[in-house]
Amino acid sequence: MSDRNRWLTAYTLVGYVFLFAPIVVLILFSFNDSRRNFQWKGFTFDWYPKLLANSEVLDALSVTLRLAAVAVIVSVVLGTLLGIALARLQFRGRAATETLLLVPVVTPEIIMGLSLLVFFFQLFGARGSFLQLAVAHITFCISYVAIVVRARAAGMDPRLEEAARDLGATALGAFRYVTLPLVTPAILSGALLSFALSFDDYVVTTFNAGVGSSTLPLYIYGKVKFGVTPEINAISTIIVAVTAVAVLAAWRIGRRRAGGQEASSA
Amino acid sequence: MADAPDARRIGPVVGTASLAGAEPRASLGNRLAGAVLLVPGVAWLTLFFVVPLAMIFVVSLGSRDALDRVVLDQLSLDNYRRAFDPTFLPTFLNSLRYAAATTVLSLAIGYPIAYWISRYGGRHKALLLVLVMLPFWTSYLIRTYAWMIILRDNGVANWALQAVGLTNEPLILLNTDFSVILGMTYGFLPFAILPLYVSIDRLDPALVAAARDLYANGRAAFLRVTLPLTMPGIVAATILTFIPAIGDFVTPDLLGGAETTTIAKVIQELFLEGRDWPFGAALGFLLMVITLGGTLIALRPLRSEVVGA
């Protein structure tokens, strides 16, 4: 390896350290035995059981999980159908549908949040509720599911469906017993990504939450504005762990392509 | 993010398209199936995404009454005029400054990393890219908070600086331009690395080797071959970091403190505290136009990677 390559390798290594160091620091400090927590005072596991005794945290966690569950279920159904349609069908308005799918992904979260706030308030006089949050979360999850499912469905051999039809399966039967099982890995990774997105969303949520529908990220934000505490480090660590597991699982499942081909890109 | 279409796949797809066209028997059923697949998702996104955006635009043309309610009697462009008023110029400029600094830093940090993954990643390329994207998927709020732990007066950075004797008293790192730009760069670096990687990976190393054979030194080969040929990736990376940085709310709020004003912070305050919705809507709509315009341009050359189209 030449000197130049060695420098480049070192640089890349530092880059990865930069990406992961803050997360490692956060996790370490959730085990720090000190309230003021700016220096390492020794290992403790105390902050985690304390969370279980905090009813505010538990309520927020319950809202967050119920919200994520609703968001995942609805967005997976809608996104899967849409993804399959885009991969399989030729129809007028296809380009428009693709744009409709892509635009929510690149819209600043603050715009999506405030547009739904305006929508619900101006039309229904609503000032935030669990339902409103569910609609908001479903809306930003659909595109991700559809994009993942579409990529897989496009890679699937359409002759499999045709063979099923030739063998007497109805359109619904072919969909149920051939298409759906083949795109299941993509549906699973779409579901996991939606869960991760919903579980830690702050910006859209802050515009649409109402009394009694405060989520874990909202709780954290409220506390964080007034400083750093070990309890918040502990909750944050749990959230990071949950989302990291979800995303890595989504990636592993997504890699398994039809016919056993490995994906060449991530 | 699908793999590139290959001959194997194009074959059967093209075959089916023509087959479907020659099959009038199934067309009614196909149409029904198509409607079942398409309508729910399209209807949802239209109702809860397109309509709300249209409503923001309408509200941005309105005004408010004494009770801060939105009034739509007389539509005008007054709010947009106000947005370009000199009093708001510093806010816009501040957002632009943060976004520009973030973009430059992300490119400088991201390009060598993307280059390394492409050239030396070997069979671990996919994993290395997932590792780049993993922080992006873990809560933006929490990643920003992690920098608070590091940068505050009695935080990890100051502790380390004092431990190695670089300073005797804590430096003020948090609530500065430095902390905002650092936080944004950290947050959006993955958006730079991904498109840079795609375009570097497409560059045929033989072209660089040819330049070297023709007596270009390493620097000249990089400046005159590698850099121009990866320009689409650089453009995409620029826009993909600039755009979210301009609309970012969490970082300036948490790492910038009370005195940092950005367009996203102003919008948030107008909606949740000030209750001047029409003006907030106008600012939001402007942000949306900048974002969408920029992103659509940036994604054009990268469409196949992102949408799998």
What does this structure look like?
The complex is a heterodimer of chains A (266) and B (309). Chain A is built from eleven helices and no strands. Chain A has a single domain (48-260), classed as MetI-like fold (Orthogonal Bundle). Residues 258-266 of chain A have low confidence and may be disordered. The radius of gyration of chain A is 22 Å and the shape is globular. With 266 residues, chain A is mostly helical. With 309 residues, chain B is an all-alpha fold. Chain B has one domain (83-307): Orthogonal Bundle (MetI-like fold), CATH 1.10.3720. In chain B, 74% of the residues lie in helices and 1% in strands. A two-stranded antiparallel sheet of chain B has the order 1-2. Chain B is globular and about 70 Å long. Residues 1-26 of chain B have low confidence and may be disordered.
Write out key terms for the chains shown:
heterodimer; A: 266 residues; mainly alpha; MetI-like fold; disordered C terminus; B: 309 residues
How would you sum up this structure in a few lines?
By secondary structure, chain A is mainly α. Chain A is 75% helix and 0% strand.
| Total number of domains of chain B | 1
Low-confidence spans of chain A: pLDDT under 50, at least 5 residues? 258-266
* Mean of pLDDT of chain B: 82
Distance between the termini of chain B: 9 Å
Biggest pleated-sheet summary of chain A: none
Structure annotation, total helices of chain B: 15
Termini gap of chain A: 27 Å
- Tell me what the CATH architecture of chain B is: Orthogonal Bundle
Summarize the amount of helix of chain B as a percent range: over 70%
Q: What integer value in Å does the Rg of chain B equal?
A: 25 Å
**Would you tell me which CATH topology of chain B applies?**
MetI-like fold
Query: How many extended strands of chain B?
Result: 2
> Poorly predicted ranges of chain B (pLDDT <50, ≥5 residues)?
1-26
- Regarding quaternary structure, what we see is heterodimer
